[in-house]
């Protein structure tokens, strides 16, 4: 059996507001160049340049991309796409769908466009300037079949230490989580899907925030260890959906009794060998 490549993961957001290592790399290597770092994702299938001193996508981005279930011929939007880590991985997994990323930060937007070109995906991916706090209609885009988001984890800047100014936008939702949820429900067509990853302790806020316009919720908890509480949740909703909530089996990331960085199930997701599907 061919062994997976080794490397280092990009820093990810921790629940205490400090950058934490996501574990073993999704790809083969990290290269520093001109104030940026080059990462390879999904076992080397996707290349991603990220600012060396800014927020760097890691585990959460990989899991959200794996949970994207946009169909062939459909259009997906990522709100707050940053440098493109989620939509690039999702696009690799979904080669017959098209993606648009919306980003307010000019530097991240420029790097997202560069990353799209770096991966030769210009024919079906693009990144556009836009603010989640502004009405979706201002983008001049038709509602999408699917929308994705990894919203900032905190609404209150006093809730965490830091972060550094270059990473603030990825950590602090200056307009609050509710604004992100409202944007997503406006950006998706009726019967379209909304998928996001967030802190597990915000699950009730997410469900309540989406419920006026969406339903048919499915929730997949993400546990660091089998005997530890979930730290993340993946949530999928359908606009105008009315089916009962479904709580799915969890994904466990690490095994205390194993020397491996991740469980086999988590590794298969991180290397693109399987996705995180949603029951129909």
Describe this structure in words.
This protein has 280 residues and is an alpha/beta fold. It has one domain (58-270): Vaccinia Virus protein VP39 (Rossmann fold, 3-Layer(aba) Sandwich). The protein is 21% helix and 28% strand. The strands form three sheets. Strands 6, 7, 8, 9, 10, 11, 12, 13 and 14 form a nine-stranded mixed beta sheet that branches. The chain has a three-stranded antiparallel beta sheet with strand order 3-4-5. It is globular and about 50 Å long. The relative contact order is 0.14.
Structure described in brief:
The chain has 280 residues and is an alpha/beta fold.
Question: Which key terms come to mind for this protein?
Answer:
280 residues; alpha/beta; Rossmann fold; nine-stranded mixed beta sheet; three-stranded antiparallel beta sheet; globular
Overall shape: globular
Alpha plus pi helix count: 7
Report the structural category: alpha/beta
The helix-strand sequence is: EEEEEHEHEHEEHHEHEEEEH
- Radius of gyration over C-alpha positions, nearest whole angstrom: 17 Å
CATH evolutionary superfamily: Vaccinia Virus protein VP39
**What composes the largest sheet?**
9 strands, mixed
Q: What is the top-level CATH class?
A: Alpha Beta
Helix % is: 10-25%
Give me the count of strands.
14
| Domain module count | 1
Poorly predicted regions = 1-29, 163-173
Average pLDDT rating: 85
* CATH-derived topology: Rossmann fold
